[in-house]
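lol ok so funny story. i was supposed to be doing the assay writeup but got distracted and ended up predicting the structure for this chain instead. priorities right. anyway since i did it might as well share w the group, maybe its usefull for someone
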Amino acid sequence: MKNSKNQFIDVIIIGAGISGIGAACHMRRNCPNKSFLILEGRANLGGTWDLFKYPGVRSDSDMYTFAYKFKPWTNKDTISDGKNILKYLNETTLEFDLEKKIKYNHWINEINWSSTKNEWKVSGFDNHNKKPIHFQCKFLMSCTGYYDYSNGYTPNFNGLKNYKGNFIHPQKWNDDVDYSNKNVVVIGSGATAITLIPSLSKKANHVTMLQRSPTYLMNLPKKDKFLNFLFRLIPSKFAHFISRWKYIIRQIYFYKISKLRPKEVKSFIKKEIKQFLPKNFDIETHFNPKYNPWDERICVVVDNDLFNSISEEKCTVVTDQIKCFKENSILLESGKELKADLVISATGLNLKFMGGIKIKIDNKTIDTSKLVSYKGMMLQNIPNATIVFGYTNASWTLKIDLVCEYFCRIINYMDKHKLNSFVTEINDKNVETEPSIELNSGYVKRASKILPKQGKKYPWKLNQNYIKDMISLKFKKIEDGYINFK
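and the output, tada:
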């Protein structure tokens, strides 16, 4: 402690989701002599995997790359449901003795850097004890994720107030939602909708997927038979290593070929899914996106579950736009009317950079939208801090591991050379910038005014490539002319 009012910690980690738990594990592994604390605004750990309760919630990445590098995924499912992911996070927390390092219900709303003290003041509110909280730390790791935990995005639908049925956003799902024998309309065609619909189809009378425009869908097996055989044959540590690199290389290749030869990849995707759908299904209308692959995220169908629901006539796909809601139905622009006992608005997320935390330097508020990201993990002019943010074109956790390892390298480097602070600075004022997330998804466009930018060249450019980032963050020397220490 530095004083009776403010608790001083070497490293404060904001958020106890998959990023925050991973960051804490890296602190245990790489900086064992440093004190750290995880401040979590909610009552439980797990972030996304504790928040979302809707039927069928699962990963849309393989678990060999979504799991941490240092803790093998030994479950037989390559694509995992949310419960098993949360179980994995709880196991990791227990294995690394992290529970006593987490302070729950600690909602942080402001961080303020003092240039004279070379430390952060972290302020917020304890929702359990109903009182303000203050901490001081030398280093800060923001692991808040990228979306608003309070509310998802719901468009301003015309006439929604007239609707007498049940209307819900998946982010607000709870066990009281009854869909048994109901006519359900799921609005949207993104990852959430693709996950929801097969699960809903098991109990609902009928499910309609109402989409404004199609999304790219790729089918993946829930289990990888070869890798499960490998785990039985050799030690899990080595099997996990092989499994990770199999999927890392596959992810990188598919992303690159999608960008280089989009027409061929588009044709391949359509050909692949056609074999799982009824012969009379109109693929050109419903599964033929107007954009190129990876202009938006590609959604994963597991073991043909969505296609099976369509083939078994448990699900209908409608591509149209909503004109208005009526008492018990949705009227479409085409004039078609969809009867609906339950409407699920799987219409996306609201992005929230760093959980909406106000950033100050010497009591001056910083506009993060004016800043440029350094190596996809720090912001220019923001000292002793990292933004732990994952990939958008591959498993989130691949980047998390690299960022946390690199930040630990910096901390140890500063200890060795008796340094107090670091900051990344742009010396060339003419650095060209562009949006930090290279996706055209609606949720990204809506957040363009609050997100930092990226540059068009290294080190301000996000690689979105694990191998390039691994070389940059794991093997290149820390002092590169852009990061300044004192």
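The radius of gyration is 23 Å. The chain is about 30% helix and 25% strand.
back to the writeup now i swear
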